[in-house]
Specification:
Structural class: alpha+beta
Largest sheet: 8 strands, antiparallel
Pfam family, one: MHC_I
Strand content: 25-35%
Oligomer: single chain
Strand order of the largest sheet: 4-3-2-1-5-6-7-8
Family: Belongs to the MHC class I family.
Organism: Astyanax mexicanus
CATH architecture of the largest domain: 2-Layer Sandwich
CATH superfamily of the largest domain: MHC class I-like antigen recognition-like
Number of strands: 19
GO cellular component, one term: external side of plasma membrane
Distance between the termini: 23 Å
Keywords: Glycoprotein, Immunoglobulin domain, Membrane, Transmembrane, Transmembrane helix
Length: 336
């Protein structure tokens, strides 16, 4: 079964803020789920569920096969030995039909009778070494925010007018109480079990390899970090030794085939600016005992990367783990 995650939700500001703080406080472990429902008639299953532990895909389920596909050896061990999977499998299969019905309901709210539409639910929990725990839950429809759960106020944030009736209904029914219990207790319980079961796998750490390059002398400058684990990494730029935030495009963290991750940050500037100033890419990762800085830039020759040299300077420890996920970006298919 092909497992992938469709991520076209533009995170609500409060969630963006929360994820920023997750980077700073560095959640040690995370368990995340990604539910995706699409309208019938496409080449994709009408419902897909993907689960990840510490950014590593554990398994997935889709409405075509109606089976759970496991993706790592240690997950197979847990599946065979522990009862926790029964609860997770029941949660996924229950949402199969319900999720597709919800998509049809949303189409009615938006006065849509045809076309390709997509409903997403991203939720999960994080657990720190000191016992601190957090949960999150957000819904997206057709690539836009729809509903976001705020566990601080025990309310839902309606991102569009069509989500207001659902917000009111769920708050009146105290659905947020169920969500809080599920995210902060049941989900955390599952996560603790997985962590205790295979600490060696989940605590492996691999430092990133970093390169800085351009396609040609007039193209944007790309800082590319790859081969690192766990998933959390921070990439920033410096101009003449000062932090630079303008004209920077930080891309999503993506999975590699070997279970590690990659991420890139793209700096757009004129050839004159590049010639007259010193630009440095700075990479922070918990496996690095020092902050990694790369200032040597190479231009791609014939479409292939000519090697770059990486220097490590300034002692700096940064513990961070963010829980959002190996990502496959799927652009909305309009008109289907």
């Amino acid at each position: 079964i092909p497992c992938f995650i469709v991520l076209i939700i533009s995170l609500h500001p409060i969630i963006t803020s929360l994820w920023f703080w997750f980077f700073i406080v560095a959640a040690t472990h995370s368990l995340q789920f990604f539910y995706t429902g699409v309208t019938p008639g496409s080449s994709f299953p009408e419902f897909t569920a993907v689960g990840q532990v510490d950014g590593e895909q554990g398994g997935c389920y889709d409405s075509n096969s109606k089976k759970v596909s496991l993706k790592t050896n240690w997950i197979w061990k847990v599946w065979n030995d522990l009862d926790q999977w029964k609860g997770i499998a029941q949660h996924v299969t229950t949402h199969d039909v319900n999720f597709r019905d919800s998509l049809i309901y949303l189409m009615k709210l938006f006065n849509q009778t045809k076309g390709f539409h997509i409903l997403q639910h991203t939720f999960g929990c994080e657990l720190d070494d000191d016992g601190s725990k957090r949960g999150f839950s957000l819904y997206g429809y057709d690539g836009e925010d729809f509903l976001v759960l705020d566990l601080n106020t025990f309310t839902y944030i309606a991102s569009v007018s069509q989500s207001v009736p659902i917000k009111r209904q769920w708050e009146e029914a105290e659905y947020v109480t169920y969500q809080k219990h599920f995210l902060l207790y049941e989900c955390i319980g599952w996560l603790k079990t997985f962590v205790e079961y295979d600490r060696s796998t989940l605590k492996r750490k691999v430092s990133p390899e970093v390169s800085v390059f351009q396609k040609d002398s007039s193209s944007p400058v790309v800082c590319h970090a790859t081969g690192f684990f766990p998933k959390a990494v921070m990439i920033t730029w410096q101009k003449n030794g000062e932090e630079l935030n303008e004209d920077v495009d930080l891309r999503e963290t993506l999975p590699n085939e070997d279970g590690t991750f990659q991420k890139r940050s793209i700096l757009t500037l004129s050839p004159e600016e590049l010639k007259n100033n010193n630009y440095t890419c700075v990479v922070h990762h918990e496996e690095l005992e020092k902050m990694m800085q790369v200032s040597e830039r190479r231009v791609l020759s014939g479409g292939s990367l000519v090697g770059t040299m990486v220097g490590a300077v300034m002692a700096f420890f940064l513990l961070l783990v963010m829980g959002f996920v190996g990502v496959f970006i799927w652009k909305k298919m309009s008109g289907k």
